[in-house]
Design goal:
With about 180 residues, this protein is α+β, with helices and mostly antiparallel strands. It has a domain at about 70-180: Mannose-Binding Protein A, Chain A (Roll), CATH 3.10.100. It is about 20% helix and about 15% strand. It contains 3 helices and 7 strands; from the N terminus they run H-E-E-E-H-H-E-E-E-E. It has helices at about 1-25, 100-110, 125, and strands at about 65-70, 80, 90, 145-150, 155-160, 165-170, 180. The strands form 2 sheets. The protein has a 4-stranded antiparallel β-sheet, with no helix packed on it. Strands 4-5-6 form a 3-stranded antiparallel β-sheet. Strand 5 and strand 6 (about 165-170) form a beta hairpin. The radius of gyration is 28 Å and the shape is elongated.
C-alpha cells in the first residue's frame, strides 16, 4: 500500500514539474522587448464620439450622419442614418406635443421614406444625440418621449434637449414631442 502511495506522489510531482516547465517556456521573457512608452492620453487629447454634431445646415453628409430614404417630395431623404449607433432617425421629429401612448402609436404608424418599422426610441438612444457643448443637435429646448419605463411606477422617461441633457420622469398624460427611430434593414 505504501508503495502505491509513493508511486502516486511521484507521478503527481512529475506532472507538476512538466506543467511548470511548459509554462516557463511558453511565457517568454519577463522583460519588455524595447523601451517602455506611455499609452496614456490626457482627457484633452481624446475626442469623444459625441463631439460630432449635427447642425441644421449640415444634417446630411456630415462625418457622423448621412441622409437616407429619399422620396420624390424630399430627394435629400426623409431620415438620417447615425453611423455611430447604426440607427435611422426621422429627419424632422414630430412637432405636435403628444401623450406617451399617442407618441408610441405615432411611431408605430409612421410611414417615412417608403418605410414602416419605426418605433419610439429608448432613453439611451435619444441621449446618444445629446451634445454637452450645445443645446442639442436637432431641436434645442425640446423634450422627447422615450419607450423606457421609469423605475417609478406609472412614469416614463423623456429626454430633454434644452442643454441640460436631463432624462426625466413624466406621467404618460404629459404632452411631449416624439422622435421616431428604426434599425436600418
Amino acid at each position: 500500500m505504501l508503495n502505491r502511495v509513493a508511486w502516486a506522489l511521484t507521478g503527481a510531482l512529475a506532472v507538476i514539474a512538466v506543467l511548470a516547465l511548459a509554462r516557463a517556456t511558453l511565457a517568454g521573457p519577463l522583460d519588455p522587448p524595447g523601451p517602455v512608452a506611455s499609452t496614456m492620453r490626457t482627457i484633452d487629447e481624446l475626442r469623444p464620439s459625441w463631439s460630432k454634431q449635427i447642425h441644421s445646415d449640415t444634417t446630411c453628409n456630415s462625418p457622423r450622419f448621412t441622409c437616407v430614404l429619399p422620396t420624390a417630395a424630399n430627394p435629400d431623404g426623409e431620415a438620417v442614418l447615425d453611423h455611430e449607433t447604426g440607427l435611422v432617425w426621422e429627419k424632422a421629429a414630430g412637432t405636435q406635443n403628444l401623450s406617451w401612448a399617442s407618441a408610441y402609436d405615432r411611431c408605430l404608424d409612421l410611414f417615412k421614406g417608403g418605410r414602416q418599422g419605426w418605433r419610439l426610441p429608448q432613453s439611451y438612444e435619444l441621449s446618444s444625440l445629446l451634445d454637452a457643448d450645445s443645446a442639442g443637435p436637432f431641436q434645442a429646448g425640446s423634450v422627447f418621449w422615450s419607450a423606457t419605463p421609469s423605475i417609478d411606477p406609472g412614469y416614463n422617461y423623456g429626454v430633454d434637449f434644452s442643454g441640460a441633457g436631463a432624462t426625466g420622469n413624466y406621467q404618460p398624460g404629459t404632452l411631449l414631442l416624439s422622435w421616431c427611430v428604426r434599425v436600418p434593414a
